[in-house]
């Protein structure tokens, strides 16, 4: 039975006719849905980042939902609080702190062709324009 914290790693090979030979063995990594925050410890995100680093990808694509800010104080009280790092942060500062930590974690990666990222619904709900360094 899968748990919410199970890391899913899958290798997919795509054969694309007429693709230039310079893309032979080109590796694209994809990470998504970290939901780093009170309910997700840094170690889980670090495991995903390590898995990508070990694959030596040429390009990294990030699919959003990097942060997990509880929607209310009730969620914080009754949720499975697994990351004490955010327990003493004021609710008004929580998104900024989580974004900062995600940025620090992702700085461990530097694929040769860069990183492409989009925001997910969790970022849109938490004003990413105000939080990005």
Primary descriptors:
elongated; 133 residues; alpha/beta; three-stranded parallel β-sheet; 8% strand
Describe this structure in words.
- This protein has 133 residues and is of the alpha/beta class.
- Helices cover 31% and strands 8% of the residues.
- The chain contains four helices and three strands.
- It has helices at 42-55, 73-78, 91-106, 121-125; strands at residues 28-31, 59-62, 115-117.
- Strands 1-2-3 form a three-stranded parallel sheet, with helices on one face.
- Strand 1, helix 1 (42-55) and strand 2 form a beta-alpha-beta unit.
- The chain starts with 27 loop residues before the first strand and ends in an 8-residue tail after the last helix.
- The mean pLDDT is 83.
What is this structure, in a nutshell?
This protein is of the alpha/beta class. It has helices at residues 42-55, 73-78, 91-106, 121-125; strands at 28-31, 59-62, 115-117.
- Quaternary structure annotation: single chain
Overall mean pLDDT stands at 83
| Order of strands, widest sheet | 1-2-3
From the N-terminal CA to the C-terminal CA, the straight-line distance is 39 Å
Report the order of strands and helices: EHEHHEH
The general outline is elongated
The major beta sheet can be summarized as: 3 strands, parallel
The portion of residues assigned to helices is 25-40%
What is the number of helical segments per DSSP (H or I, 4+ residues)?
Answer: 4
């Amino acid at each position: 039975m899968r748990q919410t914290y199970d890391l899913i790693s899958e290798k997919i090979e795509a054969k694309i006719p007429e693709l230039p030979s310079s893309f032979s063995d080109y590796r694209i990594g994809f990470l998504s849905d970290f939901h780093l925050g009170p309910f997700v410890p840094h170690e889980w995100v670090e495991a995903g980042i390590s898995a990508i680093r070990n694959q030596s990808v040429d390009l990294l694509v990030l699919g959003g939902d990097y942060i997990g800010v509880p929607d209310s104080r009730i969620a914080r009280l009754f949720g499975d609080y697994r990351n004490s790092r955010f327990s003493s942060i004021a609710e008004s500062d929580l998104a900024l702190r989580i974004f900062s930590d995600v940025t620090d974690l992702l700085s461990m990666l530097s694929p040769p062709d860069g990183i492409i990222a989009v925001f997910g619904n969790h970022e849109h709900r938490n004003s990413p324009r105000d939080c990005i360094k």
